[in-house]
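@here heads up, posting the sequence + SMILES for the flavin mononucleotide run so it's all in one place. Ping me if the SMILES looks off, I pulled it from an old spreadsheet.
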Amino acid sequence: MLNALNTDNSPFNEQQIASLQSSLGALDPAQSMWLSGYLAGQLSAGGALPAQATPAAAPAGQALTILYGSETGNGETVAEALAARFEAAGQPAELQSLDGFRPAALKKLEHAVFVMSTHGEGDPPEEALDFFEFLDSDRAPKLDKLSYRVLALGDSSYAQFCEAGRRLDERLQALGAKPFGPRVDCDVDYDSPAETWGTEVLEHARETLGGGEAAAQPANAAHLHLVQAEPAPWTRLQPFSSETLRVQKITANASEKDVHHIELSLEDSGIRYEPGDALGVWAPNDPELVAEILDGLSIDPATKVTAGEREVTVAEALTEHHEITRLAEATVRGLASAGGQDTLAEEYEALDDAGQRAFIERRQLADLVAAYPFQLNAQALVDQLRPLASRSYSIASSQALVDEEVHLTVATLASDAIGTERRGVASQFLNHRVGEGGQVRVFLEPNRRFRLPENPETPIVMIGAGTGVAPYRAFLQELEARGTNPDAWLIFGNPHLRTDFLYQREFLKWRADGLLNRIDAAWSRDQAEKRYVQHIVAEQAERLDEWLARGAHVYLCGALQMGEAVTSAIADALVESRGLDAEAAAAAVANLRREKRLLKDLY
Ligand SMILES: Cc1cc2nc3c(=O)[nH]c(=O)nc-3n(C[C@H](O)[C@H](O)[C@H](O)COP(=O)(O)OP(=O)(O)OC[C@H]3O[C@@H](n4cnc5c(N)ncnc54)[C@H](O)[C@@H]3O)c2cc1C
Ligand SMILES: Cc1cc2nc3c(=O)[nH]c(=O)nc-3n(C[C@H](O)[C@H](O)[C@H](O)COP(=O)(O)O)c2cc1C
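bot reply: prediction finished. Complex structure tokens:
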């Protein structure tokens, strides 16, 4: 497409062509699509394109500010799509991440919408932490001029569903702001509610803020044409079907962990990823598990049901479209009620919050079916189940080295908490069901919040436990391919040296070649006392501080609890090495986060 810039009838001079080729070539498909929508929106608004996009060139009418707090990119995509819709409709809007949003700007806001996801255990995303802190503080201004609406993204399998969006909504109202519509809390199938919310927001903006004349003009067709002319990028809803090239167990047979290295082909997909990104994976449920559930309920697998807008067999609905491994509160309550299971309802309601969480986390649908005799027909069953969600995996490779491949490091999730061993759907699919030569539906989940430093000389400290090592393999492959050699330190943890040193040969070779300056490993169960990565951080307080003094970026990847423990160990290390009190050390850690030198990829 960029070659078209060079044709005889191109309106650009050589310098402009070079500049456009360099700028456009760097865009990913979503960015190209957004830009095409923006340009078409400008054209369809009837005016010439401005030399620079200044506020003065925006369509008439007051702008709506679209603010988002996102960690894994869903909220960002939703906010960007809304901004593109506004542009296409000639309705003024300003899109902004809450990352670095200036508190002073808050009191000037009059018309805003917020797209807010929830992370950790009911927490705001990292990039919105400062914003929440400010809103909760005495410094927060009165917001009685602000008219706003919130779209909350979450996952109802977590205890605190859409908590950050809920907190935001509550706090804005407490400060005097007026919602122009109810908050919408979205579960994992957020696309349709987010779109409806966006339509309502756009209509509201048209009615109350002016502008938007362009929407009715025929020139708007140019926008649609431009958007559709772009090749469809592979997305969550339109995944790429990739071939599995390699499935290799990388923990020893004696290990309690079952971790596999997975290689997938991205040939001809055009997908370009960067170290730090994750791969979204759609995994069908295990047909044997589906059969066990249907058998337990005496439901004929061939019974037709409506799942969403499709009519399919109940076996297909459970295999392809619904969650059967991860329960949620609404599923348990819904099944008890629809299935006439008073015993389940009584037992569940008698538990306190923590007990209900444990009940849900330890059981799958098959366990409920085995334990409680439900009276459910096929449709009533399907109606209680949440839609199947994709799973994310940190990418463990660099395209600079592996080209049209993507590598993952996947731990099989297995639990026998209530006596029967159950597996996680996606990890079991990737490690044990798909097999080499099989197909996996994937899409890219870019993570601009977990990147190598821009300066090739900035030192990096990579801290991770278990599969948290995956992105560091990608980082080191990338550094190797680039031929740059910043100081690099790996702090890795897993149960046993003998069985669980993931990618041992590769990391030791990088150490021997000098790409890695240090490897410190915490083998948690190789001695009487448990030893974790946070213990290494504590032991190496002086060294860590010395690396920080040289501008090091510190990365944390792996389980949420590990991330929390390491974050407090870093604060303690600063107490130790700098003689700070606990408050000053916490402030120093918060500063590292603000400066984007403490980067987290936790799950
Ligand atoms: C950004 C990101 C990056 C990730 N990177 C990786 C990676 O590199 N490698 C990797 O292996 N995983 C990674 N994960 C986790 C991965 O996405 C899946 O959550 C994991 O593989 C389990 O999914 P599953 O479908 O196998 O299990 P599910 O089917 O989701 O779960 C099955 C059962 O296990 C329970 N359960 C779910 N999660 C947990 C848990 N954490 N602890 C205990 N019980 C649980 C559920 O309640 C359910 O009963 C990442 C997650 C995120 C968000
Ligand atoms: C590590 C992790 C923790 C999460 N914690 C919660 C939670 O406590 N409550 C909730 O409703 N959703 C939770 N979610 C689900 C996210 O809010 C949901 O996936 C959302 O779409 C993410 O939006 P984002 O990509 O814009 O960050 C969590 C997701 C992850 C990966």
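MO: The chain is about 40% helix and 20% strand.
MO: One more: Residues 287-384 form a domain with the NADPH-cytochrome p450 Reductase; Chain A, domain 3 fold (CATH 1.20.990.10).
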